[in-house]
Design a protein that fits this description.
By secondary structure, this protein is of the alpha+beta class. 23% of the residues lie in helices and 27% in strands. The protein is globular, with a radius of gyration of 17 Å.
Amino acid sequence: MAPINVTGNWGTLVVDAKTGVVVTDDSAAAYMHIMKFDLAEYAKAYGKPAAGDIDILDLGYWDNNDLYIKADDYHREMMGVGWGSIIANQAVGKVLTQ
């Protein structure tokens, strides 16, 4: 299984696709606190396993103190993942636009 490239503003982390463990980190000190990514949560949220290049905001992770940091909700909202529409039907939509 090919490794996953997790990219952010400060670099890329190469991650083991089975375990989520960070294999290499080219970000200097920016991401050195990240030990493991939550690939199971990603698969649940997106309905597919993590593969290829992934934005760092799409993944929750455990840091070097074993603290869990969840995936960024705002990023997922902007990407349309795991969020439902506020307008339940056409009638409510009409009321809101009048």
